[in-house]
């Protein structure tokens, strides 16, 4: 009985399995390891059948992703791409999951990278998945993940902005990150239409554009006193609202009331000042009562 040296696809350990069996198990983590089979064609050419190995890697990659072990999942998806460069899922998630390990300063450049990755993934999806229902599900999954990340990235950027409010360029940096993050959704909808035409335009693209418009309105409310930012986001909203109307004629284009937003922005400091004043008065009364009960007054 000969033993075949192999590397565990899960933990990377060097192990040996019986060369006469189709699979074995890792001595360290227990992962099932399937041997790659060699198929000899009639013409004498040799090709490697990676089907079982790829299937195993997909199980490991998805499990790691669901467990939020993103670095490990990226490794598995990269392994899949080495064996099957046509996998849209591996192409997308090997890039997308990298976003979760970024520093705040890396977000903008990574967003540009993910936009390019999405286009490539959609091209692979178009050529590898035939059934329309399955394509719709894949597009919806990508949209859901992108929307979730944009929200996480925005909240992360906002927290960082508030913590560094006194820095000179913190407002401009926050807006730039927020705009770039939201741009992922606008771009995703554009890419679907570019790759698939109007076949799916009334579903996923419209949904992500509507979500992106909501985010743009949030950005406007955040930066209402800065006319430059408000004007940029208002134009973006108008552009994509008209795209939505092409597929949903009854869609109502949002009306941006700049003056009302500015009035709300001006009112915020006053509102907070009143709250702080009330808290101060209540605290003073409590301290006075406490001191009096101790006989100090």
Provide the succession of SSEs: EEEEEEHHHHHHHHH
Compute the number of helices: 9
Shape: flat
Main beta sheet? 2 strands, antiparallel
Number of strands: 6
Strand content: 5-15%
Q: Please give the alpha-carbon distance between the first and last residues.
A: 94 Å
Structural class: mainly alpha
What is the gyration radius calculated from CA atoms?
27 Å
Widest sheet, order of strands: 1-2
Rounded average pLDDT: 83
**Approximate helicity band:** 55-70%
Instruction: Detail the poorly predicted runs.
Output: 270-274
Briefly summarize what is shown.
This protein is mainly α.
Protein described:
It is a single chain. With 297 residues, the chain is mostly helical. The chain is built from 9 helices and 6 strands. The chain has helices spanning 51-66, 70-83, 88-96, 107-128, 132-163, 170-196, 204-222, 227-247, 258-293; strands at residues 3-7, 14-18, 23-25, 32-34, 37-40, 46-49. It has a two-stranded antiparallel sheet. A hairpin with a 6-residue loop joins strand 1 (3-7) and strand 2 (14-18).
């Amino acid at each position: 009985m000969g033993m075949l040296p192999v590397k565990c696809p899960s933990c990377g350990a060097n192990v040996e399995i019986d060369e006469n069996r189709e699979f074995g198990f890792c001595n360290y983590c227990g992962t099932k390891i399937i041997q790659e089979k060699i198929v000899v064609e009639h013409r004498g050419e040799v090709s490697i059948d990676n089907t079982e190995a790829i299937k195993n890697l997909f199980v490991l990659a998805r499990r790691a992703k669901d467990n939020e072990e993103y670095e490990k999942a990226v490794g598995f998806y990269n392994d899949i791409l080495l064996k099957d460069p046509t996998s849209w899922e591996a192409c997308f998630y090997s890039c997308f999951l990298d976003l979760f390990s970024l520093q705040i300063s890396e977000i903008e450049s990574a967003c540009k990278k993910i936009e390019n990755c999405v286009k490539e993934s959609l091209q692979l999806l178009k050529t590898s998945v035939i059934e329309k229902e399955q394509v719709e599900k894949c597009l919806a999954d990508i949209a859901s993940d992108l929307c979730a990340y944009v929200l996480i990235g925005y909240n992360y950027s906002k927290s960082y902005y508030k913590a560094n409010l006194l820095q000179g360029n913190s407002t401009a940096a926050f807006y730039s990150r927020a705009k770039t993050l939201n741009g992922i959704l606008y771009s995703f909808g554009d890419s679907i239409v570019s790759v698939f035409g109007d076949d799916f335009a009334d579903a996923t693209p419209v949904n992500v554009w509507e979500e992106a418009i909501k985010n743009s309105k949030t950005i406007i409310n955040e930066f209402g006193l800065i006319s430059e930012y408000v004007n940029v986001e208002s134009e973006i909203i108008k552009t994509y609202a008209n795209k939505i109307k092409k597929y949903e004629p009854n869609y109502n284009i949002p009306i941006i009331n700049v003056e009302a937003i500015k009035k709300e922005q001006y009112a915020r400091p006053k509102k907070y000042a009143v709250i702080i004043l009330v808290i101060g008065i209540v605290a003073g009364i409590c301290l006075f009562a406490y001191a009096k009960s101790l006989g100090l007054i």
